[in-house]
Amino acid sequence: MKSSPENLGEILFPALFNPLPLGIVIVDEKYSLLYANPYVYTILGLEVGAPLPSLFSLFPSLPHLDVSCHTPPSFLRTDLITPVKSHVPIILTTYPLSLPHQNMKGYILAFLDQMSTFQIQTLFEEVSHLSTTLQEERATFEHLLNRLQSGILWGNTTRIWYANTRAKDLLGPLFSPEIGIVDLFADNEKLMHYLNRKVTLSNLEMELSLVTRPLPCLVNISYLPMKDEPGWIIEILDIEEKKKIENSIMDMAQIFIRERNELRESQRMISRELHLAREIQFSLLPHKEYPSLAYLYQPMEEIGGDFLDIFELDDSHIGIFISDVCGHGIAASLLTVMLKQKLGELKSFAFHPDHFLTALNRTLFHQLRGYFLTALYAVYNTKEGLLSLANAGHPYPFLYTQRHFATLATKRSQPIGIHPSTQYETSTRVVRPGDRILFYTDGLLETENHQGESFEEKRLGEFLEHNASKAPYALLQGLLDDLRTFHGERNLPDDIALICLDIS
Fold it and tell me: Which helix (H) or strand (E) holds 171?
């Protein structure tokens, strides 16, 4: 007769995983949820015991698997999607779960939310190494039980259903699964009295009877039936060994305190370095002020992957560049530094948007190392009222003209870094005094409210119409404030870069 996963989840899983400061989710082979520890609910902002979304709703990378043929990836850098659609960057590690005696198979998914992208970057290699080590040790549920310093037994008064390695070592060669729990101890009647109460009991001082010498021990008892058959989980701990473990725990606690203090100091250093990196990145942005042209840049974190630049080509031509590197944080921000340098090197192409983006793609392709970026480059001819644009996979600008809000469609090709020989094309449009053009990165379009509605669909057109009289910078600042109000939180889910051009 086999145990039910529900009963295992009620006693064994909480005992092992509730104290851990990381999210633990246990699923069966079909990814049906068997157990989630309290930390999962903390990360999701739910009350413990509340209904959880499906596994594939929580982890967006998992739905791409064929459930019938594949196991979850053992190590994955992904996002945890909370019930309010916010993305929490996590490192997800998967361990196979196999309990043959209980006819139970599935997976243990462990994850930890991160405080910053920089911390993720520094911890990736450590977590990857730890994940590989745990896989090599075949960290299944039985393996975890076998590593415990206490003996674990599960059975009834006539038979032992399961015994971990430590229990077998304590009981010695006389142990047999054909005997009952009460036969293991000298005082059978006393133990039977406790078993009949079917409650959890802790630290009972008893003596094992199957060993070659009397062995005083501490016994913990939990009632765990197997389907309709009464059963008990018995934990046995040698009293002398318990003292050694307590001393070891005290030593470990001192080590943890020291490492915690070192980590706090490292975090302070990281914070200072990120602040310096933010100042460096902002120094790359244009500093000259224009009466009819303004920009605003707001990274999601200290530093980000959006970038923009504005430069005068001559007394009648202005170059406008805006881009979005795939990703956030340190790696993306380093690419923006390289991008700034390349823009300066390609000024000879700057009067022709198609040549400019083609040369930029050819120059950057082998340096991006798998990254890519969307970009839009425009040249505004102030004397002739012409706007020429080339587009590398970037969102179309918005045009506000004659109190009408519309998309300014351009010929759009592949992002920078996809293929080294991509050729870009220029689209030219006549613009008139009073027209207003908004260049932006996709964080503006993809920001959602708590109902899952996008800012573009619900508010953008209305905002531009109601604020048409504002100066360019005031318009952009008001747009960012309205975006935060719509999102419902101060911190936005993506980097934001905005440029407003007024035609005069």
Answer: helix 165-171
Give the predicted TM-score (pTM) of the model.
0.48
Distance of CA 481 to the CA centre of its chain: 26
- CATH class (in words) of the domain with range 5-145: alpha beta
Question: Taking Cα atoms as reference points, which of 420, 413, 300, 442 lies closest to residue 368?
Answer: 420
CA distance 473 to 295: 7
In sequence order, the 6+-apart residues with CB closer than 8 A to the CB of 336 are: 281, 284, 305, 306, 307, 323, 325
Report the alpha-carbon distance of residue 87 to residue 447 in Å, rounded: 12
Give me the residue label for tokens 């039910």: 4
| Homologous superfamily assigned to 151-243 | PAS domain (3.30.450.20)
Tokens of 498: 């905005």
CA angle 153, 158, 196 (to 5 degrees): 80
CA–CA separation, 390 vs 382, rounded Å? 18
pLDDT tens for 108-119 read 888 876 543 344
pLDDT digits (tens, 9 = 90+) for 246-300: 677 777 778 877 887 777 777 777 666 656 666 666 666 787 778 889 998 887 7
Classified as helix, coil or strand, 470 is: coil
Q: How far is CA 316 from the centre of its chain?
A: 47
Nearest Cα to 13, choosing from 220, 248, 249, 233? 233
Compute the C-alpha angle 128/148/176, nearest 5°.
130
Spatial CA neighbour of 418 closest among 330, 358, 356, 343: 358
- Angle (deg, nearest 10), helices 329-345 and 353-364: 130
- Domain segments of the chain: what residues? 5-145, 151-243, 284-502
Q: Which helix (H) or strand (E) holds 296?
A: strand 293-298
C-alpha distance across the termini of the chain, in Å? 84
* Tokens coding 449: 């409210």
Architecture of the 284-502 domain? 4-Layer Sandwich (3.60)
User: Does this chain's domain 5-145 share its CATH topology with 151-243?
Assistant: yes
Question: Which H or E element spans position 113?
Answer: strand 104-113
Q: How far apart are CA 284 and CA 257, in angstroms?
A: 41
